[in-house]
């Protein structure tokens, strides 16, 4: 990716390099971004943030800010690695009314619309846009160690009709929305999800919350991106 003078990464806590250990948030020293920078010698403007959703990014004008700052530069790229937080629910609200209808933090139709609009804005100014698939979620760990810590797990389980795989299947819908947007807008898609799913023991690459890759998981992500770069760009 040395052909690009400026690379911006828009994402959440995972591309920012955060994980959890013993219930505490910590930074992975050799995270995927730092590993890729060291290997290829480029710099990535990591505009990711813990808890960030695509909707927040959209409302804050983060893409417009990048365009203003980089206007006039010929070779620019923007990478989106985001969507997991958008698919999440307000678990306390779900527990208070498990029989009710609840939307994710970013409803799926809004997620699709806003992602396509941001891609359009970037492409209109000659920025090359790349999308990544979402790392998978382990429903059981996430339910036991996150959801049930902030809300009544039994009530949330009622909302899921007793089937915790609703968590991972719901997140998969957002992953598919990313792929659909990439195909529709002609963006290259970096598949980091498959490398996890193809491992029978993929949970060894995750922290105890079931959503954040640990140091081993960041190496999996870095390898996936490296394979993409070597095959498509380098």
Number of helices: 11
What is the CATH top level name?
Answer: Alpha Beta
Q: What strand order characterises the main sheet?
A: 4-1-5-6-7
Q: How would you describe the oligomerization state of the chains in this entry?
A: single chain
Strand content bin: 5-15%
Main sheet makeup: 5 strands, parallel
Helix content: 40-55%
Number of domain units: 1
Description:
There is one protein chain. This protein has 234 residues and is of the alpha/beta class. Helices cover 49% and strands 13% of the residues. It is built from 11 helices and 7 strands. The protein has a 5-stranded parallel sheet. Strands 2-3 form a two-stranded antiparallel sheet. A hairpin with a 2-residue loop joins β2 and β3.
Sequence-ordered SSE layout with sheet pairings:
Layout: E1 6-11, H1 13-16, E2 18-21, E3 24-27, H2 32-40, E4 45-46, H3 54-60, H4 62-70, E5 76-81, H5 91-96, H6 108-124, E6 128-132, H7 139-150, H8 153-159, H9 165-185, E7 188-190, H10 193-197, H11 215-232
Parallel strand pairs: 1-4, 1-5, 5-6, 6-7
Antiparallel strand pairs: 2-3
Give me some keywords for this one.
234 residues, alpha/beta, Rossmann fold, 5-stranded parallel sheet, two-stranded antiparallel ribbon
